[in-house]
UniProtKB/TrEMBL annotation:
Protein name: MAIP1 protein
GO biological process, any: protein insertion into mitochondrial inner membrane from matrix
GO cellular component, one term: mitochondrial inner membrane
GO molecular function, one term: ribosome binding
Gene: Maip1
Amino acid sequence: AFSVVSKLLSQRKLDLLDELVSPEVLQVLKEKISLLPDSYRDALAADIDAIMYTTEGDVRIYYDDDGIKFVSILMRFWYLNGADLPDEVPGETKVFQIMFGDESTKEKRHLLTANYEFQREFTEGAKPDWTITRIEHPRLLE
């Protein structure tokens, strides 16, 4: 889900996120993405093969005012991206240089992080659909 959503964000195909992302988060994303430079927008995309590490940040079970049970999982992702970002992106992890082919061909990659929170209703009989209720790409979507 992270890879698919991050690519759709990068491509500005926000209308395809209606069923995956909460309306509140989607509205904020529409505003932020319209202001991003192309290089930052390109850096949002995380190819599934470029995801280096994932970990859960927080797992919660809670009830709303009507007694409906929810589960929320915050996931953190580290991924490599070849977007043409300025070297002075604050807070970014070191830039890696990866060589493909001969000595003269170098491709610069950035190790970036993203936090996505997934939520689903967990009461008996509820659909098993997850919704993304938070999307953070530090230093890119601020």
